Amino acid sequence: SDAGFKVAIAGPKRTITDRRTTALMVPAIAFLDRLDVWKQLRDKAAPLVSMQIIDGTTRLVRAQPVKFHANEIGESAFGWNIPNEIMMVALESHLARRGRVRHFPASVEQFETGEPGAVGAPFEGIVGWRQRDGEPIRHDLVLDRLEVKFLVEER
Questions:
Q1: 3-state DSSP of the chain
Q2: Whole-structure pTM value
Q3: 94 vs 48, 57, 118, CA distance in Å?
Q4: What is the Cα–Cα distance from 53 to 95, expressed in whole angstroms?
Q5: What pLDDT digit, counting tens, does each position of 118-143 carry?
Q6: Which of 27, 45, 50, 61 has the most beta carbons within 10 angstroms of its beta carbon?
Q7: C-beta of residue 51 within 8 angstroms of C-beta of residue 25
């Protein structure tokens, strides 16, 4: 939205508390910092200062575990582990303050390509989507990631 695009998010509002966590690596933290959201999350996040790779195969001869430390690459952490609920509240608060993001509360039923009535998979020339309870919504660009659909409308 900072580039002048109207942005919309389609999907039901959260109704349950998410007790899971997400490990975010340095590039994701930099993105949250640019959004001015990271400062709200930093004290609630646990730094990932070491990473261990373990051979999980059942072979007779297995590789020995290898442990890496972030300070070996000049970083204080590889990333941070953040509770999803805390991160979602911070991101929703950010979007509410910005005021430039529309929320469509229904689930997406199908994506539509540029040809009338044609339906396609994500990233195959999609220019719109249809909610389960509504008319088709047309856009210049639609980005799909799992169950949350992010879209960019015309400027």
A1: CCCCCCEEEECCCCCCCCCCEEEEEHHHHHHHHHCCCHHHHHHHCEEECEEEECCCCCCCCCCCCEEEEHHHHCCCCCEEEEEHHHHHHHHHHHHHHHCCEEEECCCEEEEEECCCCCECCCCCCEEEEEECCCCEEECCEEEEECCEEEEECCC
A2: 0.64
A3: 25, 43, 36
A4: 37
A5: 444 444 444 566 666 666 666 555 55
A6: 45
A7: no
